[in-house]
Specification:
Shape: elongated
Largest sheet: 4 strands, antiparallel
Number of strands: 16
Order of helices and strands: HEEEEEEEEEEEEEEEEH
Oligomer: single chain
Number of helices: 2
Number of domains: 2
Structural class: alpha+beta
Low-confidence stretches: none
Amino acid sequence: MNHILGIGRSGLNANQKKMDAVSDHIANVSTEGYKKKEVQFRELLSNEEQSVGVKSGVLKADYTQGALRATGYQWDMAIEGQGFFALTDENGNVFFTRNGAFQLSNDGILTDHEGNPLITNVQGIIQGEDFSVEDIPLFSVDNLQSLIHLGKGRYFPGEDGNLINSIENPDAFGKIQAGFLEESNADLTTAFTEMITTQRAYTLNSRTIQSTDDLMRLVNEMKR
């Protein structure tokens, strides 16, 4: 009985992590540059090679290119191909993003909508007519799965990835398209389908635990 309970609990935990990922997809289906995550499951085996449950694997990001949408706004930018924009937050930390929805601040600095400055090759105040996308370096790491998710389509370079940039390695990066934004690669219909199947799996595991608990209580009452 305890063996069955253990399997049921592992199923609940694995499907909860899957549901968390699906919920994140739904919440960010309209977030420019967002990349969906995949939850991988693997069977847990005892020393006797018997199944003792399931475990959700590491969340794996899917960096597939999202569709490019024309906006016509000069400070909107999309990366067609590999690479990330690099910005600095209020604490001076550098983070990566594929979200190229930028704006020009009163100081003439390109920032995201939260005021985080975009890293460019231009020193000082930007003069719109003299600025081009070639002044924006792109960044990445040689192991994309080492990136640390910060939420809102933002990433921080992890320790297991070596930094590369488009200045030193131009052939490893895509091209920046001005007047475009990259849409999220999370599909709402697919996310809702996954949500329904995950909810059903969670419910089945929950019923298994409840039924096993009822049987154990019945057995204990019979022993008395």
